[in-house]
Amino acid sequence: LTPHTLPPGTILHRTDTSKYPKGYFVQNTNFDFFNYAGLHRPVLLYTTPTTYIDDITVTTSVDQGTGLVDYQIFAQGSEHFQLEVRLLDQEGKVVAQGTGCRGQLQVPNAHLWWPYLMHEHPAYLYSLEVRLTTQTAAGPVSDFYALPVGIRTVKVTERQFLINGKPFYFHGVNKHEDADIRGRGFDWALLVKDFNLLRWLGANAFRTSHYPYA
Prior knowledge:
The chain is mainly beta. It has a four-stranded antiparallel β-sheet with strand order 6-5-8-9, with no helix packed on it. The two termini are 29 Å apart. It folds into three domains: 1-30, no CATH class; 52-155, Immunoglobulin-like; 170-208, no CATH class. 7% of the residues lie in helices and 44% in strands. GO terms for molecular function: beta-glucuronidase activity; carbohydrate binding; signaling receptor binding. Its EC number is 3.2.1.31.
């Protein structure tokens, strides 16, 4: 440990032999987390076809009640493939569809995504389904991905934070993935407890303290 390494810190040797054994030292660390403590949350390994959906970017807006879902899809493995895109509501009904790597889906009378306590039915999510198909020597191969999508607008003015044109007031707490019993890391039971406490507080937001969550 040195002040110029990661993690930062120093080694302090104790030389008073009346109190400490020979070679005794103390680690002074300048951080409040365990260093090199392993994986803090689950890791998933998965396989893909040779040609597969690599990434999906979605941005949303609203035009007089019509939801606009702009999408861009990135594929890897080949330049020869077809893409089919469908947007489903919570009842599983197809409300819009398109083709190709880039496009815009229009949803008349869209159910907007609202934060908790701002709407009778908050956090409405559509499902964006993307299917890729390509031809190989062994026949057609497909890849499929479904992405939850909330239709909303977000705008920041000099004095307000607006969601769907209405002022939003952040009311919440800092949140750690840390438990006094089972330690630091992702824990389903603790997550349920924390969100129940957030709801009990009437919170509508939380800050992901110090590190990105899954």
